[in-house]
Amino acid sequence: MNLVRRPAGTATGHAVVLGAGIAGLCAARALSEVFDRVTLVERDALAEDGGTRRGVPQGAHVHSLTVRGAAVLDGFFPGFVGRLAADGAALVTALSEVDIVFFGSLLHKVPVGTVLQAGRPFLEDRLRAAVRALPNLAVLDDREAVAPLAAPGNARVVGVRLARPGGAGAAEDVDADLVVDAMGRAGRGAAWLGSLGYRKPVEQRLRVDVAYASRRYRIPPGAAGPGRALLVGATPARPRGLVLTQQEDDLWVLSLYGFGHPDHPPTDPAEFLRFAGELASGPIWDALRRAEPVTEVASFGYPHALRRHFHRLRRLPDGLVSTGDAICSLNPIYGAGMTVAALQAAALRECLAGGTRDLPRRFYRSAADALRLPWLFSTLADRSMPQVPGTRPALAALLGKSFRATMRAAATDAEVATAVWNAVSLTASPAALARPRVVAATLRNWPRRAQDSGS
Ligand SMILES: Cc1cc2nc3c(=O)[nH]c(=O)nc-3n(C[C@H](O)[C@H](O)[C@H](O)COP(=O)(O)OP(=O)(O)OC[C@H]3O[C@@H](n4cnc5c(N)ncnc54)[C@H](O)[C@@H]3O)c2cc1C
């Protein structure tokens, strides 16, 4: 693999990435092409045991990688997705293997590309192994980033202060030519800007109050038939959803979610299955009901989708950028977070090809371009739920009707189904949903009666 894409006269030196989640791992890969050394710092002690770790509690819940996300990871590490499949991960390559019910209608079977289905720890472990194999990369785990180090005047970040989690031992200062905050949605990078005398980015929040409950099962090979996944999305009238997917080594995950407290899924095992049974049917569900659970039911609360508008800041210090959930955290029910993290790393890679001058500003603009449509599409779907506050009821009802009509059309019309699938997979712009033929098909399926609108 040729790692050196460094154009003459551009970056050398040391880059430090804070956070070894998907965003940090992908960013480290991009940086390894242009910096002499890359250090990846992670607060958790990293074990290779495939378990859920403290810093990524969402790892117990479904974590599928979209077609676009799989392609970007393959671009960073050629053959990566194939190697995961050889190692036991499930690949979905035909919609005949998946039943997707969005807004009450079953999506017509159209060509899909490749979706990677694996547990988050499985995917992350293998991505981390690929990153660790980079010749100029070192991992410092069990270290917490606690503060930026800045040059006099704070015009440039020149390193980071690390401490052992829990405060044991002395702090250590690490010099860096570039520090990348990939510490997730908590927003340390944004707070650091404030501590250095800069404005913090405006935070846009959409309160969704989504809760998850998930459990993993072992289903014997063949017992679920040819299917590999069942997705039943929430509707305005029934704000509950379910994702049941095959993962590695004949393990399956059943994740349930709901908008708003009365619809949050239960963690009591019997109630958990009852909630699922109100949504699921078919051979995969029948197999799951007979299957052996291999974990307890795990829960996770997701209060709001979040976007930080770094790209609108007029003053930024050199030497510090944030990426991944630190910039944009989409409601996880759309399954796009890892993909947009990978897309931001791809944007970083392109920006670095132009050198490090004015890098933060160039990167944030480029990341904002990559995030605009996923954010718009997912928050419009969120706003169709009456449980999500802040949207006028008439607009929420209109959004609900239009998603319902589009999905009704997508149940039988291959062009509409392809446009929907491409939007969900982030392989093409959702603008295809505004093509005249697609709009006409949507209008033909517009709910006529109030009880038809799903709102
Ligand atoms: C319930 C749920 C289900 C999801 N399902 C999907 C899905 O199906 N598909 C999908 O694509 N996405 C999904 N996502 C989204 C996905 O988890 C994230 O968007 C994606 O992992 C990118 O996150 P990240 O790497 O930016 O941050 P994180 O994954 O949060 O990683 C941040 C890392 O930084 C470390 N860290 C934090 N603070 C410090 C510090 N001070 N010093 C050093 N290290 C630190 C943490 O330990 C962690 O390792 C889901 C999310 C949730 C909550």
TrEMBL record:
This is FAD-binding domain-containing protein.
